[in-house]
Design a protein that fits this description.
four-stranded mixed sheet; single chain; 29% strand; 209 residues; 10 strands; alpha+beta
Length: 209
């Protein structure tokens, strides 16, 4: 494995294999007889997760066997969860008879066991489950020996981010304090955004850090 398309067509034509389609719309063949050897080459599966888009690829030592660009259901699940919350609040409001005294109304009982305690958000869970389903379907066709998962952490500390400009006041980008220390630009200028006002600090990065 893998084999040539011409050889695969010949095996199907001679009745020695059966052509099939998987859930990822891939065409493959399944042999009807025992193969002469069961040695397989090492194949790696690479997963690149994201918030709105993801990708899964199958790579051998010489060829790229499969690539995919996946549209993740993050926004769809997020909107549906928000809509569910609105509909649920409406149902609870309609079933309460507000003509009765407050003590006699059918309010929902207090529940303290269903609070958020480090649970995975449904939108993030849906993204992970979709990537898992794709990887599971690929493992049925390809003899995957290793899976590589890209893990990165975004710098969400927007309060301490610094906008860096060069000597000609050309904006280079907005970085955190740790990344700004790695720039090591001796002729750059730092621009901070304080209290909604843009104040230019004509200070060298090397001197400011």
């Amino acid at each position: 494995m893998p084999t040539k398309p011409s050889k695969a067509r010949k095996l199907v034509k001679d009745g020695k294999a059966v052509g099939k389609w998987d859930k990822l719309n891939q065409y493959y063949i399944q042999l009807k007889f025992a193969p002469s050897g069961e040695e397989t080459q090492p194949i790696s599966c690479g997963i690149d997760p994201g918030k709105h888009y993801g990708s899964v690829g199958i790579q051998s030592s010489k060829f790229t066997l499969f690539t995919s660009h996946i549209f993740l259901p993050f926004e769809t699940v997020k909107k549906r969860m928000e809509q569910r919350l609105i509909m649920r609040r409406g149902r609870r409001g309609r079933r309460i008879n507000r003509k009765l005294p407050y003590e006699l109304r059918a309010h929902r009982q207090k529940r303290f066991s269903n609070r958020k305690q480090g649970k995975l958000p449904p939108s993030v869970r849906a993204n992970c489950q979709l990537l898992l389903r794709v990887t599971t379907e690929l493992s049925k066709v390809y003899p995957i020996s290793s899976i590589v998962y890209e893990y990165c952490k975004a710098d969400g500390d927007t309060k301490t981010q610094i906008s860096v400009s060069d000597s000609s006041w050309k904006r280079l980008g907005q970085f955190s304090k740790n990344k700004t220390r790695l720039l090591k630009r001796s002729t750059g200028l730092i621009c901070k955004q304080l209290h909604g006002e843009r104040r230019f600090l004509p200070t060298l990065i090397a001197n400011a850090i």
